[in-house]
Amino acid sequence: MIKVAVLGYGTVGSGVVEVINTNNASIAKRVGEEVQIKYVLDLREFPGDPVEKVLVHDFETIVNDPEVDIVVETMGGVNPAYDFSKRALEAGKSVCTSNKELVARHGTELMKIAKEKSINYMFEASCGGGIPIIRPINTSLTADEIDEISGILNGTTNYILSKMSSDGSDFEDVLKEAQAKGYAEKNPEADVEGYDPCRKIAILSSLAYEQFVDYQDIYTEGITKITATDIKYAKEMGTAVKLVATSRKTDKGIYAMVSPVMIPASHPLYSVNDVFNAVFVHGNMLGDAMFYGSGAGKLPTASAVAGDVVDIAKNLHHTVMMGWSEEKLELLPIDEVESRFFVRIKGSVAEKLTAVEAAFGKVETISLPGVDGEFAFVTETLTEAAYKAAAEKVEGIISMIRARI
Ligand code: HSE
């Protein structure tokens, strides 16, 4: 029998217990022996919950028990999750986690310890919740050179942007509604400022390009400045505004970035709405592929964590190799990244076009019926540095969104 300890009985941890208990027979068949939860660690009490039988409050009970082979870390945050994960690995216990913050910060070190001990540190649930994406990159797309990953990797912001688009509402109003319904956290900063998808694209990029990508190097912009009027323009142009986390190989190097982007209807990410996530991958042989599904929530995330438990159980004394190396990938400086830019500006086309084209080069203009005193334009492809320099030369810019058109 393979014995598992779960650290943290919150949403995901309780989901993992539910998945392993509900599907116990089929999991046993796949692994070749039974997988049993021996401990659940949490500081709280859960009176009346069957978890009481296996509940412990002290990590030492787990780390010192030679029967425990697999530790599931679903505590979230960096501390004490980092300390517990490291100690479990050093004690020869494999670890799997849904904790993107910890993987993005300390994944390199934790994987190294796992390799030295011939065990595993796995994190399928850290990106895209229940969507299988880490294992496909790691074990299926291995004959390809991946040259792009573009993901909608945050359910909260995708819900907010989808709702702004369907209802014509402003960001603050939809955020309040989402918080009331429990779709957004009381402190939504990590989601709405893009920090959560930033960590996820750092993890996916480290695997895809086989070098460590530091999330702190990734240019990140959230959705707090997107307005109902921006979305009206986007619709008029046949696009949808999505918070996209991208990393891409270019002739100049690999860049990574998180920002709102106007996505045309022809792109697979356009139709990814509400709390769903999707990861679009382009490989030099594969061409396009998209992985779509539930990117958050108790059971989808727990399903991915429990999938890691099964994989670890099948590879108890053997490290399943991942491409992620210790060598750091130096990303292309953001100023050199190229894009088209959608820009709203005060004034009329007649008054401003000459000055706009003198600064930005040739542009396409868009005017919205019922939106007075301003118009919008889309530039040709420019570097971020060229955009910034041009934007300083013209008065009255209201907002800018990168456009993948
Ligand atoms: N806050 C995250 C989201 C949870 O909204 O997608 C899953 O990582």
Enumerate the spans where pLDDT stays under 50 for 5 or more consecutive residues: none
| Largest sheet properties | 11 strands, mixed
Write out the distinct hetero groups bound to the structure. Answer: L-homoserine
By helix and strand content, what is the structural category? alpha/beta
Query: What's the N-to-C terminus distance?
Result: 55 Å
The helix content, as a percent range, equals 25-40%
Kindly state the number of beta strands: 17
Overall average residue pLDDT:
97
Task: Please state the CA-atom Rg, rounded to the nearest Å.
Answer: 23 Å
Count of helix runs: 14
Shape: elongated
The proportion of strand residues reads: 25-35%
Describe this entry's structure for a reader.
The N and C termini lie far apart (55 Å). With 405 residues, the chain is α/β, with parallel strands linked by helices. It is elongated. The chain has helices at 11-22, 24-31, 59-63, 81-90, 100-116, 134-140, 155-167, 171-181, 189-192, 195-208, 228-236, 298-314, 349-360, 384-393; strands at residues 2-7, 35-41, 55-56, 68-73, 94-97, 121-122, 146-152, 219-220, 239-250, 253-264, 276-283, 287-294, 338-346, 363-366, 374-379, 382-383, 397-403. The strands form two sheets. Strands 7, 8, 9, 10, 11, 12, 13, 14, 15, 16 and 17 form an eleven-stranded mixed sheet that branches. It has a six-stranded parallel sheet with strand order 3-2-1-4-5-6, with helices on both faces. Helix 1 (11-22) packs across helix 12 (298-314) and helix 4 (81-90) packs parallel to helix 5. It contains 14 helices and 17 strands. L-homoserine is lined by residues 129, 154-156, 191, 196, 295-296.
